[in-house]
Structures are given as C-alpha cells and as structure tokens.
Queue: 4 jobs
Job 1
Amino acid sequence: MGRPIPSSSQNSLTVRDNRTGKSLEIAIEDNSIPATAFKALSAAPEKGERDENETNKGLRVSDRGFLNTAVMRSQITYIDGEAGVLRYRGYPIEELAVHSSHLETAYLLIYGSLPTSSQLEVWESEVMHHGVVHADAEQFFRSFRYDAHPMAILTSAFAYLGSYYSEANPSLQGQTLFTQGSPESLAVMDKQIYRLIGKATTLAAMAYRVRQGRSFVTPPTGFSYTGSFLYQMDHLGEENYKPNPVLEKALDVLFLLHADHELNASATTVLQTGSSLVDPYSAIAAGCASLYGPLHGGANEAVIRMLISIGSPANVPAFIEAVKKREKVLSGFGHRVYKTSDPRSFIVRKTADEVFKVTGKDELLETAMALHEAAMKDEYFIKRKLAPNVDFCSGLIYRAMGFPLDFFPVLFAVPRVVGWLAHWRQMMLQPGGVKIWRPRQIYVGASKREYVAVGERSPVEGLQKTPSQISHSGISKRTMIATFKGAKL
C-alpha cells in the first residue's frame, strides 16, 4: 500500500477521494506507483446498499487490456514507443541486427550481457546439441491430421516435450526448483533453456514436414541455428545439401528481430502461467497458444491476405477509402506500443531487398509499396500515426522464401521462445520469490438471489439465453433419436 512520506517530497502523488474527503500520499518509484495503495480508499455505503458493492472494498484500478499497467520490473527489453526505440539489454536493435546473430542475442537477452568467445562457443554448442528429440516424437507428430494447423501442432509439441523431463517439473521436484538460485538450481534451469531453444526449430520443422507427408530429418551438425532449421525442413536426401546462405542469413536477422518485445500478450501469458511454478515446457506451450491468435502472431499472415485481396496497385486508392470508412481492415500498419515507425521495419525492408535478389520480387510487392506510399501521404493515417510495422514486410519475405501462409506464426514463435525464457528466468530469480499472478475484477453482476426450482422458473430479461440449436451429423441424429426414443431434435 501507499506508505506515508513527508509532504514536502516532490517524488510523490497526492490523491484526494472526493466521495469521502480522504487524501492519500503515494511514493513514486521508477515513475510508477503501487496499485495496491488505492485499497486504502473506500466509500461509505449508501443506506440499503448491498454488502457486496465494490465501493465498500477499496478502490480498484480498472485497466482493460493492460494499457497502462506494469506488473514487474525488468532489465531485459526497453521500448520507447514515442521515439521508435527498441533495445535488448541496452543495445540498440539496429546494431545487433548488423553485428550479432540470433543465438548470440539470445544469450544476451537471457543472461544480461554479450558472451565472450568461449561463452558463445559453449552456448551455441549446448543449444545445437539439444536439438535432437526422442524417437517417440515421430509417432506423436504422425498422430495429427494431415491438415492440422502447424501452430496447433507446435503448441501441443511444447507441452508434450515436458513429459520427458521429470527433473524439470516443480510439481515433482519441489516448488523451489527454479527459484532458489543455487548452482544446482541454475544448472537445471540452464539445461531446460538449452532444450527449449534447441528443440524449437526441430519441433517446428517436424510440424512442417508432417503436413508435407515427408519423413523427418535429424538436426545436422556444423550448421548455424537457422541453417539447421532450413535443412530440417527442406532436405530431401541430396548429398552435401546446404541452404542458400542469403536466405539463412535473412531468417537469422528476422529471428533476432522477433526474439523479444517486452511484455507482449504471449510473454505475459508465459509469466502468468509460470507464476504458478509450472514446468517451463507448459509455460512455453501457453505462450505459443497466445501467439497463435490473429491479433498477435498472425499479423504478418493477415498482411499477405490483405494484399491478395487488394489485387493490384490500381485498387489501392479504393482500399484506402474503404479503410477510412471502416469497411476494410488495414494490417501491417500501426502498433500498440510504437507511436512512430517500428524500428524493426527499416531492418526488415533491407533484408527483403537481399532476399528478393535471390528469389525474385514477390508479385505482391508492387501492391505493398503502393499501399505504403499512399498511406504515408494520407492525412488520415498520419494523424493516427499508422506507420508500417515489422509485420508489413516480414510476411513478404516469408512468402518469397516459399513458406505457406499458416506457417508464418510458427516463424514468429520459434525465435520468441528466447524472449519467453528470458522473462521466465528473470521472474524465477527475482528477489522475494515468485508471487502468483491473480488479477482482480470489478463485479457488476446480480446481487444475492434465491434458488428457484426448475419447474417454477420464468425467463429473466438479460440474464437467460436459450441454448443455440446446432446442426448434427447423420450419425449424431440417429444416435440421439435412439437415445431419446424419438424425441424431436
């Protein structure tokens, strides 16, 4: 709660509750105040007011969608949305994209500093060594339908992976398994990090190949992280096969750019799940499920579908007008955090140029550029700060590289495993231990009601809904007719 501080302090917030006249002075630390401070403010109940009225239980801070809620202190990723700045552990994303690699940056995000040459050698060796999965995994992947979405497969695979490693499960080994910070605890944590990052590409490649009806490929030795990934997806038995180095490098840059982005929806999901001290595999699976949604990991896929629907540059003006009238949805522009250009978008555009030199320009590129140019000159989009984001060009790159549309979210999830693990590790080792995340609600439902027997009930306006009538398959109809002895369906 808000602690009493000298009234002369400049680093504080004074709050006055006009309902009661009560004032509260709250200390400001790191440009934030504790939401629990407001629990000290509550209104006196009105005469006859029900006991469960929210006004009698302390003031709550309502923040639908977490637009201005900070749930933790972090040292991992810094974003200045107004200035278009993104830094990993203090390093500008632009410098890392030019000089670093995805695995080196992964080390930076997880452990806090760029590795020395010997540390990097050990790190890369361990991650790549742990890319191989158990032989039983083949049967698991073959159990999915041929047309299963690859994100459904990948999400399930991460959870399935945890069933192999009982030593990584706090439910079996004790709830302080990852929180005590001892050398033994850190070693167990490191091993799960190696496994999850190393196996992420393997699981993704298996999800890709099972839908192609192809046999699975064992991770090769002597390849980079993205080189191994491309090899596992594309190798068809050729001798001395190696992925195109331009595509390998482009994918590495895209992986680096997508490795972390502060407390986005999926990272928050990982931490929410991880706060119960579940094993890291289950937490990563939860994050993968969150990223699956079209408002998060499916954004670059939405860009391609939008460009396809536009058809050609000649149709861009009509599309722009439809967006203004809210008849069409504009994908790939604007960002929840950035109020100016997404700094990653400039890097992606340069990467796209390199890829197109190898693959040839995508037929949608001209439409994309026409849309970009029109939006950047239109006052409607300028006023709303709708600049291209990282998804606008990354989808074009993935399409040019030959990835199917529904695989795009997988290409987002694989590198984001790094960011999820960085935040998970930070939470496990935070001073004071892990507190389970349990947000509150503002109850606006019915007050206390008496139970009424089913035969005596009548519909209550706004509180009762007739179940939807759904169509049934032929066998379901026959079964139900037999079960209910001819009752009308």
Job 2
Amino acid sequence: MAAAATSCGPRAGAPGCVVAAAGKDSVTSFQRRGPRASGPDGGCRRLASIAGTRPSVRNGQLLVSTGLPALDQLLGGGLAVGTLLLIEEDKYNIYSPLLFKYFLAEGIINGHTLLVASAKEDPAEILQELPAPLLNDNCKKEVDEDVCSHKTPESNIKMKIAWRYQLLPKMEVGPISSSIFGHYYDASKRIPQELIEASKWHGFFLPEKISSTLSVESCSLTHGYRSLLHFIQNIICEEGFDGSNPQKKEKNVLRIGIQNLGSPLWGDDICCTENCNNSQSLTKFLYVLRGLLRTSLSACIITVPTHLIQNKAVIARVTNLSDTVVGLESFIGSERETNPLYQEYHGLIHVRQIPRLNNLIGDVSDVKDLAFKLRRKLFTIEAKPDFF
C-alpha cells in the first residue's frame, strides 16, 4: 500500500536501496537490496517500520496480527493492512466476541489506535473486558498447564504440547514486548487498567448517536450505518491515517472493530425477514468501508450474525465484499455437544475466504478441518480428527 511506505533518500548508502557510488578513487560500493516499491518520482520507497506490523513474505503487504497467532498462520501470516476481516458469529454469540477482543487487545499492546463501534455495548465497557496478555517467559508454561489440566493419555499430551510449540514465536525473557508479532492472552484475566489508560481509542456507541429528530434522507443506508461511516472517515482523515494529512509523530495503524453488524440494533432488518426493505444497506456500507480501508493505514474486524440472515443472497454479497471470512460453529445446542467423540472441542472454525490482493475475487483456504476449544486460559485452534 502506498500509505504504508515512506520515501527512501536518493543519497548513497541510503538503507533499502542499491547504491553504486563511485568515489574519487573509482571504488564502487554496493548495499544490500531491501523491500521496496517504486514511487511516483522514480525513486525507491520502503515499507515503514510500525510497531506490531511486518511485511508478508509472499507479497510484501504490511500485516498486523489478529491477536491469535494460530489464526494468523491460517490467514497467511496475519491480517493485511487495508483489508476487512469478517467473523461469522456462532449461534449464541459466545466465542466470536473473544476473537473480537483479541484483535483489540493486540492493538493496545502494540500502541495502535483503536476505533470500537457497537450498537449493544458501550465501547468503554468492551475495553475493560479485554483479556490480559501473557508474559513472554510464562507463555509456554501457561500452555503446558492448560493442556495438562485435561485428562488425556500421556502420549496425546506430549503431541499437543509439541503442536502448540510450533505455533509459539520465539519468546524473550522479560516483560511484554510489542516487538513480537502476535501475543498470547489469558482469557481468565483482564488487561491492566494502566494499559487502557495509556492507549488511544475512539468509541462509537450507536444509542448515543441517535437523535430523536431525525430527518428522512433519500439514502439506502440506515442512520446507524451513515453515522458510523462519517465517524470512521473523520478519524481516518483528522489523524492522518489516509496520508492526506501526514501524522506528525511515528506512523501508526488504526484498528477498527465493529460488533454485531447487520443486527436489528443497527436499524437493519435483514435478520427479520427474507424480503427486507434495507437488503442493500449492509452491502453498500461494506462497499464504502472497504474504500476507506484501501486508502488508509487501517485494518478492520467485524462480527455479523449470518445465521440470522434470512436471505442467502445477502450472505453471498456480504462474503464477496469482505476480504477474509472466518466462521465459527459452536457445538452448544447441537447433537455434537453430548457426543463423547467431540467432548474435547467446543466447535468448528471455517476459513471460508482469504484475500487475494489486487484481484476482483478472494481465494479459498486449503485448510478445511479445524476445530477450536476454549480452555481455562487459552483459545486454541487445532486440526480436527478424522471422525469429524
């Protein structure tokens, strides 16, 4: 992305450029070529160094962590800046809020700016419920304790611990480090208050934005969607995330989290009837939102109750307008909940779509057989057994 790059100086010895400088003694020196992209002035540009980001090894696209390292691996290394991650909520909305909070907690740890939008919960209350990060030197210990606390054969325990170590990044002894890409979180504890107070965030609580004297506008977007788009656009422009007003300090990433989008709380009726009056409202909102994301240093996660949407054509359009789509299927209320074959798992996770950048359509993940479980402290993703 152009917004995620900074110009590289034309002088000899500039980092990230190939320099052939002939001195008076005709000695030529070369420097190692680094990640770069051509700029409009014919010079070279390199990816900006932003805390909590890294370039993709596949295409050089700037990535941020979802807050769940296992999910980062499934998505090709992380969530690309300028893209939208859609989480299909589980039936009782128990596990999807966890992924939503992991994404926000990762932003606080890395010093990213947050924009939290909800029609149900006050954003300030959502931040108070974020999970606490695990200390780097205790991370593997916590994984071991969570695995061993479940009664499984010794061979299975060793196998599962080894599998989890493959997902763990190299840890440094000491306090939490924002230089690590992707942290682990303790779901049984809350993030320290001092971290929340030191963070920069913006909240959008729909009930506070609704006026009793609304004027009827000739627009297919609901009032909640219009207000939210204006709010997001203002934050992006005023704080320089779009590059039009360069940030005075170090470059930063805006993490946008939108909860329960498409539910009746947002004034949308796609969950109430198959032939709804505002069937195009959500899709138009996503279309405009993606335009804002593509031209800014931002990444967005939204949760949508797709199991309540009556019209399947709307679900297909929502999927096509998202870059990455991950669905959660809980075992609660199903036959699998009481089946002993599934007793170690709480549900299935479906990676329905991963981004194919600079293309009109998304890609389909090759990984199909995945299950998740919420242990005492950790939310884990595993390859599900053959009997699934």
Job 3
Amino acid sequence: MGSLDPLPMQGPELGVHADDIETPEMEQESKQEVLENKDVIVQHVHIDGLGRTKEDCLTYEIAGVFRAKNLIDVMKRAHEARQKLLRLGIFRQVEVVIDTSQGVDALPNGLDVTFEVTELRRMTGSYNTMVGNNEGSMVLGLKLPNVFGRAEKLTFQFSYGTKETSYGLSFFKPQPGHFERNFAVNFYKVTGQFPWSSLRETDRGVSTEFSFPLWKTNHTLKWEGVWRELGCLARTASFAVREESGHSLKSSLSHAMVIDTRNSPILPRRGALLKINQELAGYTGGDASFLKEDFELQFNKRLFWDSVLSASLWGGCLLPIGDKPTCIADRFYLGGPTSVRGFSMYSIGPQSEGDYLGGEVYWAGAVHLYTPLPFRPGKGGFGDLFRTHFFLNAGNLCNLNYGDGPRAHLSKLAECIRWSYGAGIVLRLGNIARLELNYCIPMGVQSGDR
C-alpha cells in the first residue's frame, strides 16, 4: 500500500524568536494553522505517469477528492480514490502526494493532490502447473490490460493436460465511474471428466454477461450458447449413461442475484450470504429446454471464546419443458466435502449400475461450529490460521413426478435423508481456499450410496 505523505514542513522554521519574525514567516505559520485546524479546499488534482490510459475514465474515480472539507477528509478521500484506481487493474502502483497549492491562484487554505501512477505493461503472461482430479496440466495465460485505454481487458488462457486440453478467450469492459457495472464476452472450449458418472463432457461455446449492482444486491444477466458433446469415460459405463451420449446444443438465459455481507468468503466470522440463480433454456434456440432454479443461504454469528456458529441451506429444482427429459449434464449432484461430508463426491441419489445420474431436485443443510485450537498454540500468528471444526450435514436428492403436487414432493424430499456428523481441523489458505482434515460418521446411508 502506498503511503499518504504528510503535509510538507519545509521552508522557514516555525519555532523562531519574536525578534526574527518577518512577514513571510507569519504567513507560513498562519497557513499551517489553517490547514491543520480549519476547512481546506482541494484546488487541483493531478495524475502523473499516464501513457495509454485516457484521462476521462479516471475522472469518475478521483472526483470525490474535490468534495473534501478538511485535511483528514482529504486524506481519507484520497485513499479511497487510490483504492478505486488500483481496482481498475491497469496500474501496477499508485502513490498519493498532498501538498499546499502553488501559483498565482493559490488560496491560503488550498491543497493540491497528486496521484503518481505506474501503468501495467501492454502484455503480461503467466505459466503454472495444476494437479487435481487425477490429472496434471500446464496452464499458459496471456493478458492485455487496458487494451483501448479505458480499463478494458483481453485475456487468453490455454490448458494442456495429461488427459484433456482446454482454452478460453474473454473480453471485459467496465462502465467508467461504475466498475461494478461491466460487460464481458467469453469464447471457450472446456473438457471435463466425471468418474462418478463414467461421463466425459466437452463444451464449446460463447457467452455474454452484464453485471450491475442494485441497492444492496449484485446482479448478473447472461446468455450462453454451447455445443455439448457427451461421451462415455469407460467401457463399463452403464446403458443409462450411454443413452445420454452424443451432441446437443443449449442456448439459455440466466440471472443471478447475490447479497454478501460476510467479512470473508473462506472462514467468515460474521455476516450472511444469499445467492439465487435462475436459468431458462430452449426459448432462444437449441434442443435443451428446461427451467432451473437454485439458491444458497448462509448465516454466521460470532459467539463466546472466539468461536463462530455457521448455518447454511442449499436447494434447487430442475423443471423440463416439453416432453423431452432433462440431460445428465444439467441435473444436480450431491455428496462430498462441499455438501454432505462423509459421502463420496456426488455419490448420492439416483444411479444405474454404479453410475450416478443426478437428480432434478435437491436440498442440503449444514451447521458448523468453529473454535480456536485447544490451548491456543501460535496465538497471534500462524496458529490463527487453524480452527477446530464440528459439523452436522444433511441432504437429499431425487427425481419428482411433477403431476403429484407439492405435498407429495415434500414427502419424497423428506424420505431417506442422508446425514453425517464429525469433527476436524480447518486451515485457511489466504483468502482463496481452505483445507479440511475431518473425521466423518455418515448416517442414513441408502443402497447405492458411497
């Protein structure tokens, strides 16, 4: 973080003797007193170091500095403007310098604020390796920040793995002055392997997104057109999976709303989260027709002894439109460390010959208690990254006959509930991920569950 430089204290010494006082020193002393104890006016804001960046798109980010009324307010608003400039993703470094106004139009209480910026290079690249899902891959990335000078971004990523190859090209354009309001276009080819279903899926598609805030919520409107190719991952794949194999075209409109007041997305100590997603496929083309709804709700409350109680609830419903049944790639899956612990990944619900086919409706809930490690080893340092974890998970996944009515649906969702409980240790890896080591006791296990 760049520092906010204090007001310069150069020039005649402030603590002079009365016999040595002259007019310039009196003016300097009076000016310093005005700046520290009275209102000030920001007369000029400069941005030094611009190359290809257009000044008009930065005017919105620094406009708040002119509304400052005193020195503390100037420092606060200058820091906020600095954060907004860094958020654009076009500067490597932003420094702030606050000085008294100079020149013939300088006021006694006038200030000049200068932002000294260092732009990112026109092109940046990255190279890394990834290991996961029984596959290793090499990932090459190419990024062109600030393509046209107004915080646009063009990104290309190529992944070459031991089993599959994927790539994607995306263009991102924010609205000047409203970074949360942005537009994105994506072209991609992604291949995934799903061993719990003996399924291999290759998607080639294009999508457009428009994101915007509304009151305390964030919304995303999206259109996606994707050519999907489904195939069997093994010769032992069940006949139900083989029936799903082949090509399909999905064109869908979706909307997502998010309210997030949590202090951290990884191990929150307070706040709540609400996510609601809707997807409608078939009305803009393609051969997949369905209406899909799902939600996520989470509450976090800090208790005594630095412990945190967290409660979560998920649910979703997939409704086919027309006579054609839903596709295995569109259904919900349940089980594993992200939903019902103690069960294998996505290994709950309808299955055929050992291959899990997913369900059209599901719900899951969890209650967690996070506490510090016993005896608080490493308190105030590395030990604070670890938490003791007690949990209770439950959920169910099934298919519904939509002609039976709501009461029959609720009755079926309440049957054969899978649940588990246990304890473990959680390690927070920065603000991007968490690592859990748990001892789980699965309960309510049904025939075919893993």
Job 4
Amino acid sequence: MGEKREERGKGKLIDGMPVFAKELIAGGVAGGFAKTVVAPLERVKILFQTRRAEFRSLGLLGSFTKIAKTEGVLGFYRGNGASIARIVPYAALHYMAYEQYRRWIILGFPGVGRGPVLDLIAGSFAGGTAVLFTYPLDLVRTKLAYQVADSSKLNVQGLVPREQVYKGIRDCFSKTYKEAGIRGLYRGVAPSLYGIFPYAGLKFYFYEEMKRHVSEKHRNDITVKLVCGSVAGLLGQTFTYPLDVARRQMQVQRLLRSNSGDMKSTMEILVMIVRREGWKQLFSGLSINYLKVVPSVAIGFTVYDVMKSFLHVPARDETVMEVATSRSSQPLALHSSPSLSQSQQ
C-alpha cells in the first residue's frame, strides 16, 4: 500500500509540473548522460585541435596512451566538470527552447507548416539561445582541457612563461574575468554562434526528417532513435566543423607559445590556419569528432525522448493545441469580466 501511495504521489508531482519544466529536465539529463559517455574522446579532440605538433603525430591510440601514462584515468576527464556544468544547462535550454520556438512559430506563422523547415528554424534559434547563456562554461572547459601534465614534473606544458595555471573551474573563471572582463569570458563566441545556428538547425532537421520516413510502428524503437540521431549528428557536424576548430583556437590564444599578443578574429584565424597548415587543418580531429558525435547526439536524442515519455510530456501537437486554446480563452475571459462584475453588483 505504501509503495502504491508513493507512486501515486510521484505521478501527481510529475503531472503537476509545467511542460517547459519537464522539457528542461529531460534535456539536462540527456545532455549530461551523453557528454559523460564521450568525455575521453572530447579531451583528445581538443588536444588534436590545439596541440597539433604534440598529439597529431601520436595518433588516436598514441594520444590515449600518453594521457593514461602521464595523468591516469582521471586525465581523460580533465575539464569534464566544467563540461558537465555547461552541458546540463545548455542541453536543457537547447531542447526546451527548440520546443518553445517550434510552438511559437506554428502559432505565429501558420503558413510555415510542420515540415523540416520548421525544425531547421526552431533548432537554429534554440542553439543560439543556449550558446549565449552557457558560453563562459564552454570557454572554461576548453582552457582546462588544454592543460597537459608532464609525466616527470607534473607541471603544465606549452604555456606562455609566467602564465598562471588554472587549478579548477572557479579559479579559471576568476583569472579569466580579472584578465579581460566579460569580453574574456565570451572570447570565441562569434564562431560558436556562426557554427551553432546551422549545426543545431541541421541536427534537428535531419533527426526529425529521418524519423518521418520511419513507420509509426517502429518510430519509438530505441535502435531507430539511435540510428537517426547518429546520422543527424554526423551530417550536421561535417558542415560546421571548421568553425569549431577556429573557436578552440580563439579560446586558447592567450595560452599558445606562438601567440604574438594580438587577438585575432574568426576569419583571421581561419585564414591563418589555411596559410600555415593547409585547408586540411580546418578538419583536424574530425575523425575523432565523428567517434564522439555519433554516440553523443544519438544518446542525447534517445535519452531526451525516453525522459519525455517518463515525465509524461504530451505530444507536440497536443501542447500546441493547449497553448492555442489558452490564448484564445484569455480574450474571452477579459471580455466577459465586466458582465460578471455587473452581475455581482
């Protein structure tokens, strides 16, 4: 009896939550779970992008071996605390904003329809919104992941002489803010926005479009969701990867030995990379990113859909109808209120 009461209590609590809160929770859980699974690949990818001479010659397995020897298992998760601290609110905002923008577009612009263009637009704006709110955490995550411990002295290599080593998330925030203020915390946000608008839009576009071609009978299968999410992430990432490389370079400019002191713009970074190392460097680490993105996006979309089902989030068409009904009832209530007050008098 007691267990049944607890289950009923949990059911009432879940059903009493607003839809946007459920979407926030579902998105946060999905993002945190997916990011933790691929954290080691994320660390190696960042080192490939920013420490090319040191790690590219080692290759994927060699890089894993070096990190394991010099830093141990925890080395694969360096900067992952900041990554989780960023990805949970980022994913929560991203998924929730996507649902909200989708509803607003349907209600405000009925002519757009409910096809792939809607998912592309809603996903793009949702990605931009999430980036603006959580970018400083991504910057901190990259700076912490960039630091590499030496096997003999356990100090940090590759830093400018007298450059302070970041001890953790709070220390990195504090020193970055003291050094350059708010602008320092948003260093590299431009290529992030350039990249996230097409990437987020394409990711949702491909995922929803692929699901539309699956029969209703198999649409809720976890395997189908994983496959759709994998292809969506792979295609979306391929088109926008050079901007991700530029963003990482901008984030660690102050830590690079070769840095002349002048902070470069997104286009200057891209041109500099092509001139010095060729256009292939714009896709440095892409193979690792495929290994990371495929499971990350697949797991993210799948866990999000599973969490929505667990939290009893209604179907998208149902939520749109609820919002439309509530909006249409408000003017009616306002119109009827004078007559109610007259009858009360």
